[in-house]
Automatic annotation (TrEMBL):
Highest rank taxon of the organism: Eukaryota
InterPro entries: AB_hydrolase_fold, Fungal_lipase-type
Keyword Hydrolase (UniProt): yes
Keywords: Hydrolase
Gene Ontology MF term list: hydrolase activity
Cross-referenced SUPFAM superfamilies: alpha/beta-Hydrolases
Pfam families: Lipase_3
GO BP annotations listed: lipid metabolic process
Every Fungal lipase-type domain range: 34-167
Name used for this protein in its record: Triacylglycerol lipase
Keyword Hydrolase: yes
Length: 333
């Protein structure tokens, strides 16, 4: 954590296409840090991404998220001078761009943009630039996600919805919900569990009104013998795949976007042999290849809490604690 005296600039309030941010110095690690804040609430972020994810722009021949690309360009235009001055004053320091959620996506795209510039244009070498994003949403094409793997890192917490959230994944979730055998599920599962699943589904697909309404009606009239007219029998995987292929062929399925760079996936584990009746919770960190895409939204009770900064901090501290002599630099260097 940076000391207050090492924070050179702090902009708390956000504006259109420009979230809050800070510029600071980490003398111990020899870093100039640009930290970019994410959206205030996860629900705002869901709205932002769903409403604008169909707007894509081309960057160096690759597709990117329109709003995120514009925000990255703002920093490239208006804060590059401050960053250059800091690097000139602190010789031998590197530039680290960091952010959570939407801020992580902006930091990643900004790093990609800086890497495309020459030393003459920037006033410093692009080789010193790297980015780390936590809970970054899908914002780049697969090709761009793979091409930035050497200098962009994305950390994903287990069931976090945001790295899985895109127009394409919502379309898949809509099909999955409509094809679920809800009658069979209610017969087999505890009702509270089913209601929890329905509640999470309604939160995630609030923009897909027909699905949300049908789920709400189903929950409301569960004791009535006459149910709303929607599929109560699940289709086979083959039929489901055919449905997706038809939507993709007709152009109704949005283009896939991916989380950028190399992915570190935080997985929660339970040690049942630890003597406790519930077991002891611990976390492990798994490295995934660039371009890995979380195509399916996981409807669990943790889809929102796993997105929070505190959840990432707690889990990463647990991971680091289990590595002899390791620190965060060893993992996210």
């Amino acid at each position: 954590m940076l000391r207050e005296s090492n924070v050179l600039k702090y902009v708390k309030d956000s504006s259109v296409m420009r979230p809050g941010y800070y510029i600071g110095i980490d003398p111990r690690k020899k870093l100039i840090i640009l930290g970019i804040r994410g959206t205030h609430t996860v629900y705002d972020l869901i709205t932002d991404i769903v409403s604008s994810s169909i707007e894509e722009v081309t960057f160096e021949g690759y597709s990117t998220h329109f709003g995120i690309a514009e925000a990255a360009r703002w920093f490239l235009t208006y804060e590059i001078g401050t960053i250059r001055t800091c690097l000139e004053k602190h010789e031998g320091f590197r530039l680290r761009l960091v952010g959570h959620s939407l801020g992580g996506a902006i930091a990643s795209l900004l790093a990609i943009m800086l890497k495309k510039k020459s030393s003459e244009e920037l006033g410093f070498s692009p080789e010193i630039v790297s980015a780390v994003g936590y809970a970054t949403p899908p914002c780049v094409s697969k090709g761009l996600a793979e091409s930035c793997s050497d200098f962009v890192t994305t950390v994903v917490m287990q069931d976090d919805i945001v790295p899985r959230l895109s127009a394409a994944s919502l379309a898949r979730l809509r099909i999955e919900i409509l094809q679920t055998d809800w009658m069979s599920l209610i017969e087999k599962e505890d009702w509270k569990s089913v209601m929890g699943l329905v509640t999470n589904a309604k939160q995630v697909v609030s923009s897909v009104q027909d699905v949300a309404h049908k789920l709400a009606d189903y929950a409301k009239f569960r004791s009535v013998k006459s149910f709303p007219a929607f599929p109560l029998k699940s289709k086979s995987k083959t039929e489901n795949a055919v449905s997706l292929e038809k939507e993709e062929a007709t152009g109704t399925m949005p283009e896939e976007l991916f989380v950028p760079g190399t992915i570190y996936y935080i997985k929660k584990n339970i040690d049942t042999n630890a003597g406790s009746s519930r077991g002891i919770e611990f976390y492990t960190l798994w490295r995934s290849p660039p371009g890995e895409h979380f195509q399916r939204i996981v409807l669990s009770s943790k889809i929102i809490s796993d997105h929070k900064c505190d959840s990432h901090q707690h889990a990463l501290r647990d991971v680091i604690k289990g590595l002899p002599g390791a620190n965060d630099n060893d993992i996210l260097k």
